[in-house]
Amino acid sequence: MTTESAEAVRQLLRKDMQREHALHADLLQYIGLREEDLSSASQKHIRLMAQAASVLELNTTDVSAYVAAISDLCEKYDALHASVSTWRRHEAKQLKRKQELHNELREMEHMLAMLDAASQERDAIENVATMDGRLKEYTGKHAVYAKEIAKLDKNLADRGYFHVASSLHHDVLVHLEQQCAQLEAANNEVRAKVDRFQDLPPNLELANATLYKAQERLQQLEADFQSRVHSMV
């Protein structure tokens, strides 16, 4: 505390003491007695009344002044009590709203987790559906190529190609037959890889990379196969 502050406090205390002494003298004058003429209990009561008048900031010890000051104090107390009650209700309302917001936040977090899981599941289903579509596409192409091969074999057989070729180009046909067997084995390998797409994890990037490699391999095999077929015809 600074020197100026300490001096201000002393001045305030001195002023309060002077007021209390003045009120004390006013009370003695009001009852018309000297303090030494009173009993110790009466002296104590006089001091208490003087202190009460000082606390109530009265300038007089008239009964009406006490009544007015006490009434004003009661009104202030009632107003303060009502204000405290209002504040407590407001506080309870705020605490309730806080709990509601906390519950809503937890519910939103739960819903977010469910939506994230549903999104991942949807992506996995879409990946599987894509793999199924590719598998059906490759199966269809395999059936078409097998049908074309059977048709070519029939045409060649009708023209007597195999009979003539067996005596003229047996070694060439044997080589082509071996290449066809290799192509068929490679085609089966690609088909097996496509079948395994069903068991891939729900990772779109990994699935697309594997699918892209399989497509390139199948296109290469298709090109080689078409080249062999055209060379035979």
TrEMBL record:
Superkingdom, natural source: Eukaryota
GO cellular component: cytosol; HAUS complex; microtubule; spindle
Pfam families linked: HAUS1
Key word Cell cycle present: yes
InterPro entries the UniProt entry points to: HAUS1
Location of the protein in the cell: Cytoplasm, Cytoskeleton, Spindle
One GO BP: cell division
Coiled coil residues, start to end: 173-224
Record keywords: Cell cycle, Cell division, Coiled coil, Cytoplasm, Cytoskeleton, Microtubule, Mitosis
Primary location group: cytoplasm
Annotated family: Belongs to the HAUS1 family.
Name of the protein in its database record: Uncharacterized protein
Organism: Saprolegnia diclina (strain VS20)
